[in-house]
Design goal:
The protein is an alpha/beta fold. The protein has 22 helices and 30 strands. α9 packs across α10, α12 packs across α13 and α15 packs across α16. The radius of gyration is 25 Å and the shape is globular. 53% of the residues are buried. The chain binds adenosine-5'-monophosphate-propyl ester (PRX). Adenosine-5'-monophosphate-propyl ester binds next to α13, β20, β24 and β25.
């Protein structure tokens, strides 16, 4: 079908009922909904027993007496890495491919479950030799190479805690994460491949660790073959350490609530939050969702989740969910357009990918390039598609289904967060009639509601705030080292602790329609979503004001056709520096500064230089107004137009005096 006719398909009631051929073979059945509705805890108990192998079986399902910190399957013991590795080998599936890995330059590695298990055993022994044991924190800063997965599983195997830092983050970001978690060991690489060249990683680690007291050792994977500085006594080559390590390692069982990982994510304040996940409940829910939402048939499917392991999607749907289920996966190191714009589709064809899970930004970019690029490859192996990270607009949804999924593949829009650990809202393939652009329904076992500001349930069809009303197995267990912030951020808005009522506030706006289907509307707080990545307005503001020329700064997420949102900043340059450079020069310097403080993903799309920032009487920056300005919307509200600071802002940006009688639109690009 031609992309030009897509618009005409976007009729009000466009629906896609499950294909009968798909239904016949589908993993999920309507019985799942019934079972979970009848007895939610018994439902989760069954999932935990069937999907997870326990060293010591649990007798207790949920202990919520210490809410909002849950204990799931609390008296059970398990080893998460054993569940992802040894048990598949023991079951006779050691020869099954775990990963078809493809490096950006075109080098490849095929790794079976037996090989992955052997590698993880050696890595666990190598880490143990450096003194890593249960509860110790290990930071991982790697490109998307198999060693990233091996490192995570080796840490998990020891009952230690990993903190993966996305390879695009800066030395500053590594340092704050290493310090916050007091990491003992860092695992990094010389460099990785991206956009046709090697980008060095170790220099950022070296800079981050200068003066860091908690880190005793650094393991360095050789990937980029680029030259690196070496700190003798602290640094060790990964391959040397593994060669020297004992090949045998018996996995020991740890408590179900043993911490598995910390993953830092942006919140509304400047400092990223270390989201803590534990073992038994997390593994249960990632395995359950991976199996049912993606209709996994592990003997025949080839699953490809395009996320980096530096994000929660990579943790849950590259590492733990798929490996627990014994899936065969594709892992690709590089960018979608290197060395040509069809690289992803070429990989789909090469490995016969049957389930493809990606983000709306990537789909919109592919759409922009044109359908002839994917149509140049054989994508007939694809039978199911997934989307995550940001709302998917119906146009992109339909293009995805038609062009990538041959007009037949169900598109699963999956809503979840770093905090939820696993998918929470998604249709079930083979059961649900799909609605483009809507994540639709909470999964069996999950309870959500759309509430108004006062915590009352909204009457559909209406918009409100998304809340999770019952605890779930893969829920976060806290913010590392900051219990008060954990309670305040997620549990203070709707809960009534005295009445024993605990309701999780997700921070997202959502609409519920007459069928009860949920459509996500984006964040309602100061968290931006840029290309599916979470960024905090305040964190970028802090980065801007840390530059000596900046007196004050405000950041907003402005809507962007391609990336959903883009970072737009407003900055006041200190009086004494104003004459030093042009605005364009200041803009270049400050964009670079943000990239080096946080990482390239946080680099503002544009920076407006202003002489004043509009604030409320209580001194809060009027971000909504700044968003209107950044998006080129008229600022029509007379109360705000009466504010001299707003008038000043309009003058600064339009270059001419404003009058209260006009509704002013300012240019969206200044430079
Ligand atoms: O705003 C929601 C958006 O991404 C946020 C979570 O970001 P993060 O913790 O980085 O995890 C992203 C991957 C799970 C949410 O609060 N979001 C995630 N998935 C969707 C979504 N927004 C709309 N539709 C989705 N399917």
């Amino acid at each position: 079908m031609s992309t030009d006719s897509i618009d005409s398909l976007l009729t009000e009631n466009r629906r896609f009922a499950p294909d009968p051929a798909f239904v016949a073979d589908a993993v999920a059945t309507p019985e799942l909904y019934r079972e979970a509705a009848d007895d939610r805890l018994a439902f989760w108990e069954r999932q935990a027993r069937e999907l997870v192998s326990w060293h010591v079986p649990f007798t207790e399902v949920l202990d919520w007496t210490n809410a909002p910190v849950a204990r799931w399957f609390g008296d059970g013991r398990l080893n998460v890495a054993y569940n992802c590795l040894d048990r598949h080998v023991d079951a006779g599936n050691g020869d099954r491919v775990a990963f078809h890995w493809e490096g950006e330059p075109g080098d490849t590695r095929t790794i079976t479950y037996a090989e992955l298990t052997a590698e993880v055993k050696r890595a666990a022994n190598a880490l143990a030799a450096l003194g890593v044991g249960q509860g110790d924190r290990v930071a991982i800063y790697l490109p998307l190479v198999p060693e990233a997965v091996v490192a995570m599983l080796a840490v998990a195997r020891l009952g230690a805690v990993h903190s993966v830092v996305f390879g695009g983050f800066s030395a500053e970001s590594i340092r704050s994460r290493v310090d916050d978690a007091q990491a003992k060991v860092v695992i990094t690489a010389d460099g990785g491949w991206r956009k046709g060249r090697v980008f060095p990683l170790k220099p950022a680690v070296d800079a981050a660790l200068a003066g860091a007291t908690s880190v005793t050792d650094v393991l360095v994977v050789r990937r980029g073959e680029n030259e690196v500085e070496w700190v003798h006594g602290r640094d060790h080559w990964w391959h040397d350490a593994l060669d020297a390590a004992d090949p045998e390692h018996e996995a020991q069982g740890f408590e179900a609530e043993n911490p598995l990982f910390i993953l830092y994510t942006s919140g509304t304040t400047g400092k990223p939050k270390g989201i803590l996940h534990t073992s038994g409940g997390y593994l249960t829910q990632v395995a359950y969702t991976h199996k049912n939402v993606f209709d996994l048939h592990p003997e025949t499917d080839v699953f490809w989740c395009t996320a980096d392991v530096g994000w929660i999607t990579g943790h849950s749907y590259v590492v733990y969910g798929p490996l627990a289920n014994g899936a065969t996966q594709v892992l690709y190191e590089g960018t979608p357009d290197t060395p040509h714009p069809g690289r992803w589709w070429e990989i789909v064809e090469k490995y016969g990918v049957s389930i493809f899970y990606s983000a709306p930004t990537a789909i919109r970019s592919a759409m922009k390039l044109g359908r002839q690029i994917p149509q140049g490859f054989d994508l007939s192996s694809i039978r199911l598609l997934g989307s995550v990270g940001e709302p998917i607009n119906p146009e992109a949804w339909i293009w995805y289904r038609d062009i990538i999924g041959a007009g037949t593949a169900p598109v699963e829009d999956t809503w979840w967060q770093t905090e939820t650990g696993a998918i929470m809202i998604a249709a079930l393939p083979g059961i649900t009639t799909l609605k483009p652009g809507s994540a639709q329904t909470a999964l069996p076992g999950i309870r959500v509601d759309i509430l108004d500001e006062n915590g009352g349930r909204v009457a559909p069809p209406r918009g409100g705030l998304l809340a999770v009303t019952e605890p779930w197995p893969s829920m976060l267990r806290g913010i590392w080292g900051d219990h008060a912030r954990f309670v305040e951020t997620y549990w203070s808005k709707f809960s009534d602790p005295d009445a024993g009522r605990w309701i999780y506030f997700a921070g997202d706006g959502a609409h519920v329609d007459a069928d009860g289907d949920i459509t996500l509307l984006g964040r309602v707080d100061d968290v931006m979503n840029v290309a599916g990545h979470r960024l905090s307005t305040q964190e970028i503001e802090s980065a801007l004001v840390s530059h000596p020329i900046v007196a004050e700064a405000a950041v907003v997420g402005a809507s962007d056709e391609m990336s959903g949102q883009a970072v737009v900043a407003y900055a006041i340059v200190k009086e004494r520096h104003r004459a030093e450079h042009s605005d364009a020069e200041f803009e270049t310097v400050l964009k670079q500064h943000v990239a080096s403080e946080i990482g390239a993903i946080a680099r503002p799309r544009q920076i407006y230089f202003v002489s004043e920032l509009p604030k409320t009487r209580s001194g809060k920056i009027m971000r909504r107004l700044l968003r209107d300005v950044a998006e080129g919307r008229p600022i029509g509200d007379t109360t705000t137009l009466a504010d001299p600071a707003v008038m000043k802002l309009i003058e600064d940006l339009s270059g001419s005096p404003a009058t209260t009688s006009i509704t002013t639109t300012v240019p969206t690009r200044k430079t």
